[in-house]
Structure formats: C-alpha cells, structure tokens
Design goal:
By secondary structure, the protein is mostly helical. Helix content is 70%, strand content 0%.
Length: 257
C-alpha cells in the first residue's frame, strides 16, 4: 500500500515559536533533508541554515548586551576621562597666572589653552559619550598635529598629557561597548522569528512540490524531510505557551506581524 502524502494545508503557516525554538527547528530541518532532494529543496535548505545563523548572532548579541553593565559601568570611565581633561586644562590655567617676565612659558601656556579649548573650555565634557569622545579625539589630534605635546610636557608635567591619553583609550572602548549594546538592544528579534517562519514555509512548500503520488519513494522522502516540523508542531500544541520570551521576541508566525 502506497504511503499517504502529507496534507499541504498543514504547511501553509509556520508553527508558533520563540526565537530559540525557531533556530533549533531550522537547523534540525536542514540536517534532516534527504540527500535525494532536488536542487530547489537544497536551496531552501541552505536558506534555513542562513536564517538560523543570522538569528543566532542577533540572539547572542542581545544576551551579551543584557549581561553587560549599563550606565553604572560607564560612569567611572566617564568620570576618569573628565578628570584627566580637567587636570590638564587646570594645570595650563594655573601656569598662565605666573608673571610672563619671569616665567616665559606662561605666555605659551595661554596660547595652547586658547588654541585647544577656546572659549568653550571643557563644555564638551557634558555631551553624550560618543560626542565627547569624538571631540576629545579631535583635540588630541590637533594637539599632536600642531606640536603642542612637547610644550605641554614641559609646562604641565608629562604625567598630565600621559593620563589624558590613557583615559582616552579607555573612553573609546567604553563608547564602543555602549554603541554595541544599544545596537543589540534596539534590534527587533521578532523580525528574525518572522524570517525563520517564512523560510520554514518556503522549505515545506518546496518539499511538497517534489511529491509524485505514483512514486511512493517521493512521498516517503517528503515525510522524512518534514518530520521535524510535524514533531515540533505537535510538541508545542501539547504544552502551554507563555506570552513571549525574556528577550522581547514574542512567539509569532510570519503572518502574525
């Protein structure tokens, strides 16, 4: 007796799933694809792997972002950076108060102070972390480009500029972390769930298209290819569903956007 073909109506919609479940289902479907399947199915199989990998990367970034400290971890680095600039500028300001007739570098201190900080002074330290870093970086580049470093080391003491450079490197790493965290937290994981659902439906459609009712082997191959999807759907129907996962990726089907 010839095996019964799968009911196409059962595969027109993706199962309700979380992001983690969708990733796992895509991978199991791809691994279970019979080698006898034609190129059209193999292409859909490859897309399952690709969409699962993209979702895994986004999910991993989200988990890392949630695991990292937020504003509390950034503040000490910000404070150290602010203090380094404040100390350097304060040192220059103090030197300008010395009598230029006796201490010629008093005049040079005033010139460097005006060139690097101008009337705005340290107001850039109140900007957002990325903006502050960009402005501080431009000040350092101008400082090096105009040859102020030697004079600063002589006037202020090399420790002051050295500290600015050290804190600036740490500040840059902190800003990079902040931007990566914001990017990870702003990405809509629900979009990945929907993309996974679309690829699963496309894969199932391609598999069903290989069935020839007068060739039992094609029916068996199709059932083998779709068995993980059938098992996943049955398992999720047996257990109660939560309203969504902890990372903001609600259970969804492609049409449920």
């Amino acid at each position: 007796m010839s095996p019964t073909p799968p009911d196409p109506a059962q595969y027109t919609r993706a199962p309700v799933m979380t992001l983690e479940g969708g990733i796992t289902l895509c991978r199991v479907l791809a691994e279970s694809c019979p080698k006898s399947m034609p190129a059209s199915v193999k292409k859909a199989q490859k897309r399952l792997t690709e969409v699962a990998e993209a979702a895994q990367v986004a999910y991993t970034m989200r988990r890392k972002a949630l695991g990292k400290g937020g504003e509390e971890d950034s503040r000490p680095v910000d404070r150290a950076g602010d203090n380094s600039w404040g100390a350097l500028r304060g040192r220059l300001q103090a030197y300008t108060l010395l009598p230029a007739e006796t201490y010629p570098d008093a005049k040079r201190a005033g010139e460097i102070l005006a060139s690097l900080f101008g009337e705005a002074g340290l107001s850039f330290l109140t900007e957002s972390y990325p903006e502050q870093y960009a402005i501080a970086d431009s000040v350092l580049r101008r400082l090096d480009g105009e040859g102020f470093a030697v004079d600063l080391d002589r006037i202020a003491g090399k420790e002051f500029l050295e500290n600015v450079r050290t804190q600036h490197v740490a500040y840059g790493k902190m800003v990079a972390g902040v931007l990566q965290r914001e990017a990870a937290l702003s990405e809509d994981l629900g979009e990945h769930v929907r993309a996974i659902g679309q690829e699963i439906v496309d894969y199932a459609t391609k598999v069903l298209a290989t069935i020839e009712r007068d060739k039992p082997a094609t029916i068996t191959a199709a059932r083998t290819a779709l068995r993980p999807l059938d098992a996943f759907r049955e398992a999720t129907q047996r257990r109660p569903r939560s309203s969504g996962d902890a990372d903001g990726a609600p259970p969804a089907s492609p049409e449920g956007a």
